[in-house]
Amino acid sequence: MASRLNAIQKDAEATKEALSHQLLEFQSQAQENHNVIHAQLSELVDYIHRGSADKKGESGSRGLQQPSNVQVSASSERTPTFDQRVEMAQRHIVHTVLDADANRDLFARQDAAERDRERRRREARALKRRRRD
């Protein structure tokens, strides 16, 4: 009974650890997305301000300039789309469940082996007692 309880506790701890890892990954991805959006918004604001400055004649004959979004587009290529992130999360969840199932099978085999060892010990003790008597 105690070994079963330990197995359940280990399974719960493994699940907790996996969920914590998923949460950290999600937070990291959210921060990266925030940074990309912030960079894009900054570029847009700069573009708008340059346009209004040109209209007032403050920036000479440059005219409206397109924002330099080479860096932003490169980082947005690395950033997966929402659908890709959903698919990645689903795959991660499936792998977590499969790992938990594999661990459950391992724990079941370990419990069975422990019960078998304990049974053999009891039988050996009983045999010793019979020999002494």
Automatic annotation (TrEMBL):
Residues 62-82 have a biased composition (Polar residues). Residues 52-87, 104-133 are annotated as: Disordered. Residues 104-117 have a biased composition (Basic and acidic residues). It comes from the Eukaryota. Residues 118-133 have a biased composition (Basic residues). This is Uncharacterized protein. It comes from Dorcoceras hygrometricum.
